[in-house]
Amino acid sequence: MRELRGRLALVTGASSGLGPFIARRLHLEGIRLVLSARRRPELERLARELVGSRVVTADLSMPEEVERLAAEAGPVDLLVANAGVPASGPLLDFTVEQLDRALDVNLRAPLVLARLLLPGMVARGRGHLVLIASMAGQVAAARLSVYAATKFGLRGLGHGLRAELRGTGVGVSIVSPFYVGRVGMWAETGVRSPLEEVSPVRVAEAVVDAVRRDRAEVTVAPAPVRLLHRLPMAVPELVHTPLGRWGAHPGRAVEAQRAKR
Description:
Layout: E1 8-12, H1 19-28, E2 32-37, H2 40-49, E3 54-57, H3 63-73, E4 78-81, H4 96-124, E5 127-132, H5 145-164, E6 170-177, H6 184-188, H7 200-213, E7 217-220, H8 223-234, H9 242-248, H10 252-260
Parallel strand pairs: 1-2, 1-4, 2-3, 4-5, 5-6, 6-7
């Protein structure tokens, strides 16, 4: 979707983390915005900054709220499915309710929003979906099994849906960041990666680049990390070797540091 000015975009998870950075970057392109999250004060503050934006609050862990959001957003040309909840720790530490929430927000909501918003895009012959995934959706690690499951699912949705929509004028892109500094889930842990973290501005730029160039997937990470990830992606068995446990996933050493605290 090369022409962005004047298009309408729905950005979920817009109140915090990557959301405001993505919204600001889209606004610079002349895109009209529907900003959504649970917290209205933060959304309204951002909407005042990004003149012309609308606010629709929604709790994406509630199925009826997802459907209401799709209806109130209107005929959007771009969906940026950015909302997500953290889900780190061993599977056995989760309650069933916590598992349901992670699945509902991180995977079910983008899937349902896509199903409800795509017919209009296909009918108009233009549109784009951006799914904010994670490098945890490329290579899984201990203590990230639940979070990785949601992000692996999101990547599967994106790649499969992109193939289904080929020729319709509607594109699908996956943006998979490494650890993001300054804001978001990773920054809030207080732990720092031994490798270079990526900035939220860089992730927002990747979103615009993915839409404009119709890219299948953009991995936002330092070059050595992208290269390192290709090995366990090609040969998943490496993750289960001593070398793989400490080297194949760049965040494994950081997870160990966190466990010691």
